[in-house]
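Q: Could you write out the predicted structure for this multi-component system? I'm mainly interested in how the pieces pack against one another.
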Amino acid sequence: MSCNNHIFFKGGVHPNEGKELSCSNAIQDAPLLDKYTVILHQHIGAPPKLIVQKGDEVKKGQLLAEAGGFVSAPVHSPTSGTVSAMLEISGPMGLKMSAVEITSDGKDEWKLPFNKIEEWDSAEPKDLKQRVADAGIVGMGGAAFPTSVKLSPPSGKKIDTLILNGAECEPYLTADHRVMLESSDAVLEGAAILAKILDVKNIYIGIENNKPDAIETLSRKAGHYGIKVQQLRVRYPQGAEKQLIYALTGRKVPAGGLPMDVGCVVQNISTAVPVKEAVVDAKPLIERVTTVTGESVVNPGNWRFRLGTPVSKALELAGGVKYQPGKVILGGPMMGFSQKNLDATIMKNTSGLLLLDKDDVSQFSSESCIRCGKCVDACPMNLLPGTLSVAAENEVWDIAEDYFVMDCMECGCCSYVCPAHRPLVQHFKRAKAEINAKRKR
Amino acid sequence: MGTALLSVIFITTLCLVLGIIIGLVAKIFAVKTDARIEETEELLPGANCGGCGFAGCSDFAKACVTGKTTPDKCPVCASDNIEKIETLLGLNSGDAEKQIAVVMCGGDNTDAAKFVKYNGINDCKAAALVAGGDKGCEYGCLGFASCSRGCPFDAIEMKNGLAIVHPELCVGCGQCIATCPRNIIKMVPASVELHVYCSSKDKGAAKKKVCNVACIGCHKCVKVAEENQMLIDGFLISVNYDNPPSRDIIEAAKCPTGCLR
């Protein structure tokens, strides 16, 4: 199969894909658990406002916390039962986060919070957008940015293209792949709803050509909705917003700009499914497909987990481990977060639970920059990671800012290729945190 | 001979004339400065630590003279120098108590184990970005010496992965507070000689799992101290610095983990 598009971003890397571990197993529904610990702040933006109290009876799909601002998202109960505790648990990034513990009553009774909009084609776009917001839908690829905000471009920005990201360029993860195969109708209908909200005719689905079955399945049905399925070359980070826009439309997002500056909106493929469910089936976002994988996992595969499923339970479902792994990561190996315990729970943006072997986890000590320039070749954002890292190492944040450290998307390509094993991305994360703190002052 | 004499006379006259002009110009265009600013600055330590909140000692001196602040806001200055400045400016602020920094954590590498292997930048803020740091305790000192490097007076020592402030070297400038991602460095009155070296808000049993020297909230010290001398915040006890107990309670309380000392 050849590539339709010849435009290709500069840089990137191609690590061992590791997708064969989990890509051939169908998605399984995780059984109902006794307890779910739902983290409240699952998105980028303002924290939501808790509206239930300890001891309250809740139904499946009932609102637990409402949006705390425009850039915010509500959270719904994953099952029916009782609010048994308010906890502070360590989230995926190691910070304490407030969470609600729901003890299941075993009935798993729905209480649909909305009305079904089956004839969405004749519905008002603003009603559809409100539904996406009310259902608590956020970017499921990893960023967890509230979807309804992305669908509200400021006046003056004309959106003409909707892109669905099915690249899944992160190694090991196959959740999007399985969703495209098994829920292709929901993906396409969700995409059509998103296009209706944005009032665009140009809809692309970009898929890396290591998933020929997904490309075939979607291409067969996409014509009905006027959606174009495009193959992409396999290269990490092909699924990054700016790289994807460039590959599919040839447009370049300016430094410091957003996709809407070039008339594009990018959504993850897995975000389209809950959009369809929210509109057509009136279901809020309470579950997601997550890959549990790694050489040491007994039965790697994909599961449909309720939000709030503890990571330790998710691992148990996959049969546990054959031997002691070297690292536990939530997300993919390139951009995910390594964990120090299994306390965290599945959130809206948890695309994967990955166990890396000890041999795969480098424990080198970092050396001085040898100025080989490999990081410059690898950087898909055309930055100078070596120079930036020296600035960050010496805490000269002004220079780091002048060299566009804020454009770094933390994809990890530079760290991956660095022969001196410098923790480049960590330097940039720190620099970005320092600069953001300075800007706030 | 005649030429030489002429030259001398000419140069002398020229110097005199120019001197008079310069003198006149200086008088006419004189910038009025308050001599007290310079005198105040001389009495200040000159460390430019920024502990007062101004951009260095010179800026602080100016602020003192113009009445924007008071000399006792300099945490570093010796008390007799502050008195001299106050006499110079005709102020009397009374005795402000000296404050020092204390790292409210006692868990070093032996007592509070690291749970995971961290292989990254040697800086507390950077380490806190990776899974919240490698220490089992999510509140304790990370031990990458960011505060120690940030102290302009070398008053913070790293001992077995724990930052310890030397009270005799600490001048109370407060520069270390912002360097700590865990926010466990507190400014306290220098006269108080006992502290609860723990900042963890976890439950007692959870603390016990990750640290041998944490405050487990047993309230033994609260019982032996007088009312309102120790503050209770959930599972964490702390000294009430407005009404501190005497050091005798350490003996009487028999703190089971030794975090009150």
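A: Regarding packing and overall arrangement: Chain A has a mean pLDDT of 92.
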